[in-house]
Amino acid sequence: MKKRLLLPLLFSLISVAQASNVTNIGWSDLQGKVAPYHDPFKELTGEQLYNLSLYARITGIKKQSPEKVTEAMQKEAEDAKVMLENEKIDIAYMFEQRFIIMKKRQQAAMATNKLLIDTNIEIAGYMLPLEFDGELVTEFLLVPTIGACSHEPVPSPNQLILVKAENAIKANSLYMPIKISGILRTTAQAKDLYLVDGQKNIDLSYRVDNALVEPFIGTR
Predict the structure, then answer these.
(1) Which of 47, 50, 188, 219 is the most exposed place for a label (fewest CB within 10 A)?
(2) What b/e string do you get for 41-53 counting C-beta neighbours within 10 Å, with b at 16 or more?
């Protein structure tokens, strides 16, 4: 009789111990560390960025297909160049930095937090379903904001989690607020997301398999 009474207590203690090992994290915790770098584009104003991109676009077209550049386009490019030079913007240097900075930004967007890999984590976010079984969701993206990946920009790969639920969940609405818990794994893959306005290919840095999914109510 004592053994029968002890067993439920033992299982209860195990559950409490497992719950205490869960690390509650926020989205910023998922960002990995990268070597610091100087991004000269952050120092430009919106107007300067516009003029630089305008000049780059038209000069690029002129180089590839000069017949497509009209007099009006050429005038726009020249005006943009003059404005940039008057504001002491080194156009040649900025053009050299484009691909260097782009690569560094991509590295920062993909970088994972190695301290969290293989850790039992809990995080709140919004469900963006990928696979349905009737009204039940079996696989989804956990995203940090409402509208992410649809009418809002796609977050960085290290700000998305591919989730495979332990049990299928009934999706009451798109972007349903939830929290998940499970072992965080790193992954480098892409998933197709089918939306009303078309298909998108989403790059991912994280996944959680067999996740426990619960509704979430509260301040995130």
Answers:
(1) 219
(2) eeebeeebeebbe
